[in-house]
Amino acid sequence: MHQMKTGFRLTLVGIMLSTMTLLVGCGDGDEQAADEQARETAEAAAQEEAASREAEAQSEPAEDVEPLDVRILVSASIGSDRRLQVEGETNLPDGAQVQVIVERELSRVRWRERVDVEQGQFVAGPFGPGSGLPDGGYSVRVELSEATVQPRAVQQRIGEKGEYLTGELVTQSRHGLGQIAAYTTRFMVGNQPRQSRGNAELLQTP
pTM higher than 0.90 for the full model? Predict the structure, then answer.
């Protein structure tokens, strides 16, 4: 009888240990599941907040950019080497790249230089062959390059396609890259006033 009681007690202890093991196992599983669910909830909340911020940013109206009524003023002079020096004033933003093109009207020979606007001014040249410019008529064209080649700060002011440019100097790019601005004037090179015709300014040679 004593042995039976001892065996019964051992069996009862074994059952209790097994039950405790199962309970502990179940407790660990529930805790892991709860942690995983909490992480998923936190991630979902973070994603929802990010999406909300993005939608709010997209719904905000873009900052209005004031149109830029482009102005360009050009002057020219002939040096002792009979070559043409071009200076200009403009309200284009600093850093804007402009091309200055000088063309002899008789032969259509061209000289060009790309310069940057600095403090509302630009200087280009001298233009012409080493022997100097022959007497005659010359056109000077100043052209704002397309926005795609402009520095980022300039793009922000004139628009990624030049859409903020306005005024009589604004025209469409020949390459279909939006709006540009261009200004053309004429000069006569020589010592005789009778050589000047139309609205061309006479530049007397030294």
Answer: no
